[in-house]
């Protein structure tokens, strides 16, 4: 056991950090060597867990080491050999734009976690936005190809439109991971939420709460995520012998989130104008939910008599005296896993295709009593 000299009046985490840096600089620890475990460092240097965590956090933030999920902490490549990862998302609007409130709840956690994990992995990050325009997405992919980046995490505007560019990146040996989408026409790693299981569990929870008429509102986007959410709703209704054909409403929408909100608002005004209390509504995403809520309020419907469910956390007030279910996707975990897959594939080109499906959880509010409910992974995933 090595003890640090307390007479130096230097914080122990800095001394431990310098000790590990010296091992790296003296090549006793080489790139991709695994660092001793947290417990081993505590034992060998007679320090606390907090000291070890602070030392490793600083080394990670400065790019000397990187963490791999479930495996440990490893020595990074020399700083002159840093990888560069590109991230393409839809947008990150300012507060002056109507879409801003949706970005905060969905886009921001994914982008933040990608940036944080890239830093943890000693990688640079280039950030692109397609602004809900597939032509801009194509231009961005051409730029990414010309820059020769080492990997790409993408939340594509279409699951097929720019598959050719992604295929070219893969042929050139560049790892590509699709976030919240499953690409068609090209073999791309993917990280998604278990949308079918989340929608099934939320619908079943509404049924168990006594609602047998559940209106499901969704957009007409041709995404696997959207299809799987609808499939989960249909499965739960069918298993309970409930009719769903007349309660399934598809809202026409362009790529933008505000258009989804307007589409669901228009449909609600038409289909719920003569509705009697005691039904429930389930929205496939937050813009659709906002449109549904605004439409119901304009119709004068009392939401206290209506069951509510939605994916993610919509930026709209919902009173406590309702049955209200949020299907919470593990958005930050999705971003983190994307970067981990890219870095793992850069180190192992022969790695098997990765299609990671993470389980969401439900947050259930029953008239002010809130609980979180785990979601069992679906056996019915449709890629």
Report the CATH topology name of the largest domain. Rossmann fold
Q: Could you give the order of strands across the largest sheet?
A: 9-8-10-11-12-14-15
The CATH class of the largest domain, by name, is Alpha Beta
Distance between the termini: 53 Å
> What is the correct CATH architecture of the largest domain?
3-Layer(aba) Sandwich
Give the number of domains: 3
> Taking Cα atoms only, what radius of gyration do you get, to the nearest Å?
24 Å
Structural class comes to alpha/beta
According to CATH, the homologous superfamily of the largest domain is Response regulator
Q: What's the shape?
A: globular
Order of helices and strands: HHHEEEHEHEHEEHEHEHEHEEHEEE
Tell me roughly what share of residues is in helical segments. 40-55%
- The number of distinct helices, counting runs of at least 4 residues, comes to 11
């Amino acid at each position: 056991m090595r003890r640090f000299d307390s007479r130096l009046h230097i914080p122990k985490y800095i001394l431990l950090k310098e000790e590990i840096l010296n091992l790296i600089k003296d090549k006793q620890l080489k790139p991709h060597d695994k660092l001793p475990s947290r417990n081993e460092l505590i034992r060998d240097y007679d320090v606390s867990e907090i000291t070890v965590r602070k030392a490793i956090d600083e080394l990670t933030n400065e790019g000397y080491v990187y963490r791999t999920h479930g495996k440990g902490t490893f020595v990074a490549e020399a700083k002159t050999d840093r990888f560069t990862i590109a991230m393409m998302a839809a947008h990150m609007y300012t507060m002056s734009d109507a879409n801003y409130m949706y970005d905060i709840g969905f886009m921001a956690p994914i982008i933040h976690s990608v940036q944080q994990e890239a830093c943890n992995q000693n990688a640079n990050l280039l950030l692109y936005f397609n602004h809900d325009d597939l032509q801009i997405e194509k231009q961005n992919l051409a730029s990414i190809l010309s820059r020769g980046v080492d990997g790409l995490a993408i939340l594509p505007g279409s699951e097929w439109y720019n598959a050719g560019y992604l295929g070219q990146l893969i042929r050139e040996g560049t790892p590509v991971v699709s976030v919240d989408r499953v690409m068609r026409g090209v073999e791309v790693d993917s990280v998604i939420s278990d949308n079918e299981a989340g929608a099934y569990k939320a619908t079943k929870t509404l049924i168990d709460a006594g609602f047998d008429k559940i209106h499901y509102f969704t957009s007409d986007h041709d995404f696997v995520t959207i299809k799987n959410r609808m499939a989960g709703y249909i499965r739960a209704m069918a298993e309970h012998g409930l009719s769903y054909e007349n309660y399934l409403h598809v809202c026409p929408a362009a790529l933008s989130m505000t258009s989804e909100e307007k589409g669901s608002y228009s449909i609600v005004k038409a289909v719920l104008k003569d509705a009697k209390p005691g039904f429930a509504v389930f929205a496939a995403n937050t813009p659709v939910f906002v449109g549904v809520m605004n439409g119901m309020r304009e119709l004068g419907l009392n939401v206290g008599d209506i069951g509510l469910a939605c994916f993610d956390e919509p930026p709209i007030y919902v009173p406590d005296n309702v049955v209200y279910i949020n299907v919470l996707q593990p958005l930050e975990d999705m971003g983190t896993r994307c970067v981990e897959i890219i870095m793992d594939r850069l180190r192992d080109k022969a790695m098997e295709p990765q299609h990671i499906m993470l389980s969401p959880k439900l947050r259930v509010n029953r008239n002010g009593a809130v609980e979180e409910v785990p979601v069992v992974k679906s056996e019915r995933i449709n890629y």
